[in-house]
Amino acid sequence: MTRTDPESGVEAAPQAAELGRLEDRICEVLDLQIRPLLMIHGGGIDLLRVSPDGRVELEFQGACRGCALQTVTYALGVRQRLLEVPGVTEVAVKGVRISKMALQRTAEMYRGYSFRPGGLTGAAS
Amino acid sequence: MLNNDVFIFDNAVHNYDLSDANMARPDSGLDRAYHLRLGDVRRTSGQELTYGNGDMYSSFARKWNPKDLGKLLFEDSATDMAMAQAVVLYDVYKQGFAPVEAQYEFARAFPDRVMFCGGVDPLYPSLEGALEEMERQVKQLGAKSFKFYNAHIGASWRADDPKLAYPLYERGRQLGIKVFQFHKGFPITRARLEDLSPLDIQRAATDFPDLTFAIHHLALPYFEETVYIAARFPNVVLVLSGTMHLPMIAPWQFMEYMGRLLRDVGSDRILWGSEAPLFGNPQPMIEWFWKMEIPEVLQERYGYPEITEQDKRKILGENQARLFGVDVETAKRQARTRERSAA
């Protein structure tokens, strides 16, 4: 159950329990889907915080720091996957900056494809 | 200050001596000519009249002094503070291109606005001599950093040489120096380009994680290498020295560089450096940079992020202030007081 702030029009913060459940869902995706792939290359990622409105902040670790393909890992391997988590509205990795156009392009190219376990869904299925 | 609010701390100015009297070899004029021609095409027209005799070359082929450089930087541009960097090219110039004592004199003339960056070379005359000179420059002249130039005509040394370079960092560290700076990329003498590759910074940055290594000029033409090095090593900073004047000639190229740096390195480790007075008054470039944007087509094609006002403030002065322990708000208050009293 969410409320709307009458002044800003923004949905007010969910209850702490709801935020906790969102963090659990994010951690599960990080542990099962994202970190295993990063670890193949000696990389890693830490969850810094999740805001009540679903914004997720992370930080690359290990070989991901300074990697030439860090922006690709962020846009495709991290952001797209986490945006599939219900409740997640935006994903940022500390120090990684790419244009809105690049993010939109990634989102459009992968629209209809799901990273969830069980194979591709949508456009390719 | 720009717009009475944006703090400008220039990392690289040189109270240089390009006079005939300072030429070390019979053919040193060739090196001087090559170096100066770089500036000839980057200075906005009219500066040969404001700061010289009407001729673009000979107006700058001279020995500068604190009065003229102070006017150029602090009266005619929005620059608040600057670091006067020694460049000891003893193979070409008797006292170096930017002599140690001349940089010290400039810092002494503007003690609240200029920091002195010393310079030594382990090949001239020796490592032991360089170490002693470091001691003198810190203790007697107040050096806050050191600038190195690895390539000479017929000789060179590497920044990752454990026997030749590491003692310099160790002595500097003992003396309280935290930032070591390197000219990298295009030579300003007839030295070999490959001797100025930035690749040797990697091992030094790894072995001295508590020190900061500054790569000047984006090490052009080794831009790719420079980006990857800076991305991998958090104790590496990049100075736009020389390259910040590129927009006059090739604005698109500069915007590509800047977009790439913002995407892959971040704005926290990019420093403003004008090379004044070699490239003339930096004011036109300060104003251009403040207005610049990363064009949408670059954002679209390369994913480069937009450049924000915060990025520009960091690059124009706040990063340099952080590196050298200058409180920006205090410095801005001092600048406003100065400007009020000058009005």
Characterise this structure.
- Chain A has 125 residues and is α+β, with helices and mostly antiparallel strands.
- In chain A, strand 1 and strand 2 form a beta hairpin.
- In chain A, helix 1 packs antiparallel against helix 2.
- Chain A is built from three helices and three strands; from the N terminus they run H-E-E-H-E-H.
- In chain B, strands 1-2-3-4-7-8-9-10 form an eight-stranded parallel β-sheet, with helices on both faces.
- The relative contact order of chain B is 0.15.
- Chains A and B meet through helix 2 and helix 3 of A and helix 9, helix 11 and helix 13 of B.
Rg result of chain A = 15 Å
The CATH topology label of chain B is TIM Barrel
Mean pLDDT of chain A: 85
Helix content of chain B: 40-55%
Oligomeric organization of the protein chains: heterodimer
Please report the distance between the alpha carbons of the first and last residues of chain A.
Answer: 34 Å
Count of distinct structural domains of chain B: 1
Q: Roughly what fraction of the amino acids of chain B lie in strands?
A: 5-15%
Which consecutive residue ranges of chain B, at least 5 long each, have pLDDT under 50? none
Number of helices of chain A: 3
Q: Looking at CATH, which topology of chain A would you report?
A: GMP Synthetase, Chain A, domain 3
Question: What structural category arises from helix and sheet content of chain B?
Answer: alpha/beta
Order of helices and strands of chain A: HEEHEH
* N- and C-termini, Cα separation of chain B: 14 Å
The largest beta-sheet of chain B arranges its strands as: 1-2-3-4-7-8-9-10
